[in-house]
Structures are given as C-alpha cells and as structure tokens.
Amino acid sequence: MKKTAVFLLCIFFASVSFSADTGPMDALKGPVDEGIRLLSDPKYKNPSLKRVQREKIWEIVRKAFDFTELSGRALAANWKTLNPQQRKEFTEVFSDVLGNTYLDKIQGGFRDEKVAYLGQEKVSDTKAVVKTKIIREKGEIPVDYSMRFKNDSWKVYDVHVEGVSLVQNYRSQFNEILSKDSPDELIKRLEKKLAEQQKGDSK
C-alpha cells in the first residue's frame, strides 16, 4: 500500500503544462513545487477543504497530461479499432476514472517528500524523459516522466516508478477485457466505475 501511495503521488507531481521556452527538466521544477505547495498547505488539513484542494490539483493535472496520447498507448493496437467517437468517449471517461482513483490517495499519502532532478534525455525532437527521484525518510524512489512536445508545450503521457509504467499497467488490464469484449463494453465498464466513484464521493 505504501508503494502504491507513492506511485500515485509521483504521477501527479508533474502537474502543469510544460512551456517550450525551457527544457523538459527545467520546466518540470515549477509544477513539482506547485504540487508540493498544495499538498503541504496546512489549511487543507481541514476536511471541509479537501474537495477544494482536490479540484485545484485536478485542474492543473488536466492541463499537464496528454490524456489522448496516454489513452492511445494504454490501448496499444486496440486503439486502431475504435472509431473517433469511441476514442473521445474512452479518453474522457478513462481520464476521469484515473483522477478519481488517484486523487484521494494522493491527498492522504503525502509525507513531506522531496524531489531530486537527475537529468533529462531527449529521445527525439518531440519526446523526452526526465529522470528524478523521490526522497523519503525510509529511502529513495526513482521516477521517470515520459513527455511529449505538442502544440508548443511539453506534456506527460506516462510515468515510470521503480520501472513500473502507468500506461503498461492499464494496457494489460484493457487488453484482457478487449480480448473478450467490444470497445463499447470497455467504455461501459469505465462509465460504471466512474459512477461508483462519484457515488462514493457524494457520501
């Protein structure tokens, strides 16, 4: 559970749109500081403000991640079997499920972690990997951010924590479902999951 909480926390540290004016690693530092500031702000310890904190983080995350790219990679070859409307519906519901799955755990899992920047690797003119590590009381955890340059900004499309890929994790699940069911059925499952999450949030 502790490793899972750290994984979820790391995913959302990269939480604003990355400007083309600076390199990927330099552009990552501001978002990390903003994420830590929100998570560290003592006023959000008030239970009545948790939803406000959550909405602020999610607003930033939506601008940071290329959810279409992430969704396409999560489905891999199956992405080609979806028509444009199915791709749109899948991306929207998948991103919402991701947000609802992780934000509560992020809010409860932050323990004053620090971030060290180790370097960046330009894979191509439009892709890069920023290498960091999360420094905790009980050790260090390597975190790599895969980013893509599109529409004049760098955005995250995958996160690797200790070599574990967010995209690959979901790809395995989705491939298993799509080996038996249609894309519409997968979308329905995600919609059902989202409805259950939203029902739980309203309690």
Number of helices: 7
Please provide the ordered H/E string of secondary-structure elements: HEHHHHEEEEEHH
Rg is 17 Å
Unreliable sequence segments: 14-21
Helix content: 40-55%
* Approximate strand percentage: 15-25%
Which quaternary structure do these chains form? single chain
How confident is the prediction overall: mean pLDDT? Answer: 85
Q: What is the straight-line distance between the termini? A: 24 Å
The biggest sheet amounts to: 6 strands, antiparallel
Q: Strand tally, please?
A: 6
Structural class: alpha+beta
Question: What's the shape?
Answer: globular
What are the SSEs and their pairings?
Blueprint: H1 2-11, E1 18-19, H2 24-40, H3 50-64, H4 67-75, H5 84-109, E2 114-122, E3 127-136, E4 139-150, E5 153-161, E6 164-165, H6 166-178, H7 183-201
Antiparallel strand pairs: 1-5, 2-3, 3-4, 4-5, 5-6
Helix pairs in contact: 1-5, 3-5, 4-5, 4-6, 5-7
